Amino acid sequence: MSDITFSKEEKALIVRKIQGYFSEELNQQIGQFDAEFLLDFLSKELGAYYYNRGLYDAQAVLNAKLEDVQDAIYQLEQRTEFRR
């Protein structure tokens, strides 16, 4: 897995969200530099956990779709004297 990176616009939005959280929930002001530093830390240290969870969720969706495809193929199968 490569490092998790965000575009300039995405990072700015996330930084504002971090600042808003600190202000509203913790009643503390946090500057842009500190919020960016926190975002970088969280991305580096925790990002892989969220990334992996996303992969697991995607795999579960894909497996469900593959089961649907297998069922559809089974329904198309014609009866013959051969058994599986």
Describe what this molecule looks like in 3D.
The mean pLDDT is 93. It is rod-shaped and about 75 Å long. Helix 1 crosses helix 2. The two termini are 41 Å apart. The protein contains two helices and no strands. It is an all-alpha fold and 84 residues long. The longest helix has 45 residues, at 32-76. It is 75% helix and 0% strand. The protein has one domain (8-76).
Label this structure with key terms.
2 helices; single chain; mainly alpha; about 80 residues; rod-shaped; about 0% strand
Structure classification: mainly alpha
Quaternary structure state of the chains depicted: single chain
Which series of helices and strands comes N to C? HH
Query: Mean pLDDT score, rounded?
Result: 93
Alpha plus pi helix count: 2
The biggest beta sheet is recorded as: none
Number of domains: 1
Strand content: under 5%
Backbone shape? rod-shaped
The percentage helix is over 70%
Low-pLDDT residue spans: none
Number of strands: 0
Rounded to the nearest angstrom, the radius of gyration is 23 Å
Euclidean distance between termini CA atoms: 41 Å
